[in-house]
Amino acid sequence: MGKQSAVDELLQRIGQAFETLPRQLQNVASYLERERANIMVQRINEIAEGCEVHPSAVVRFAQRFGYSGFSEMQAVFRSDYTDTVTPARSYQQRIRKVIAEGEARMGPSHMALRFIDASRAGLAELAEHFDAKQFDAAVELLLKAENIYVVAVRRTFSIASYIVYALQHTHKRVHLVSGLGGMYREQIRSIGKNDVLIAISYPPYGKETLYCAKVAHQHKAKVLAITDSALGAVGRDANVMLMVNEGSAFAFRALTSTICLCQALFVALAYKLELKVEENPHPGEYDD
């Protein structure tokens, strides 16, 4: 299995217990997931205000998950800092950390093998925790959709580009919400109740992706989230969620599992569409 960060492990435990938590502690759980990149610098009063609870509820929440208090829980988020800061700065810090820890002496080919092993571990975890019901539901959403919109930003943008390319080999109407020229709002505003938005995002979640998901909900469209947590800002309100926890090496997360899942999604949809054509043949429908 791919090695998870301490924050990922904590959020996974929180997710498993979420339904059993009192409402106030659920508010804290949702806030931690949504603001995970900022928790390390926030004071307990700020977090309590953001959760709309008393500071004592934040302390109770930390104790519920085995910490002596808020400060000890916050230290977990602080140690995860290099994975959640501004991307350019984070990349530089992570490379310097590799050098400081002596990893640079491994040699390029050894480092490449570490990345391959991390990707392999991520794929093994994807298979082990594969949710067949959610995957089948995702295919059905796409099968029934009049239009399919796809949004992902920064490191996951390449995944969005791929799945749009693949889906365009079907007869579905597919739209990449690229934000070219800053036009996210214009590109997503036509989404309707018979459409589906595929939203791909991992912490820290892209504000553009969150905006598109919000508009999709407002317009009664369905949202298919590809993300790493059911508690996250993307997965929490999705109609269907496909969970992916990528493998990582040298504090850099791979994209192998996400692209594999998206390829499988396309193949499964194309297969269903072909079956539908065979059951209801229309001569010349696939002619150029």
Task: Write up what this structure looks like.
With 288 residues, this protein is of the alpha/beta class. It folds into two domains: 6-83, Winged helix-like DNA-binding domain superfamily/Winged helix DNA-binding domain (Arc Repressor Mutant, subunit A, Orthogonal Bundle), CATH 1.10.10; 128-279, 3-Layer(aba) Sandwich (Rossmann fold), CATH 3.40.50.10490. The chain is built from twelve helices and seven strands. The protein has helices spanning 6-17, 23-34, 44-51, 55-64, 70-79, 87-100, 108-128, 132-144, 157-167, 184-188, 207-218, 256-279, and strands at residues 147-151, 173-176, 196-200, 222-227, 240-243, 248-249, 252-253. Strands 2-1-3-4-5 form a five-stranded parallel β-sheet, with helices on both faces. A two-stranded antiparallel sheet has the order 6-7. Strand 6 (248-249) and strand 7 (252-253) form a beta hairpin. The longest helix has 24 residues, at 256-279. The radius of gyration is 21 Å and the shape is globular. The termini are far apart.
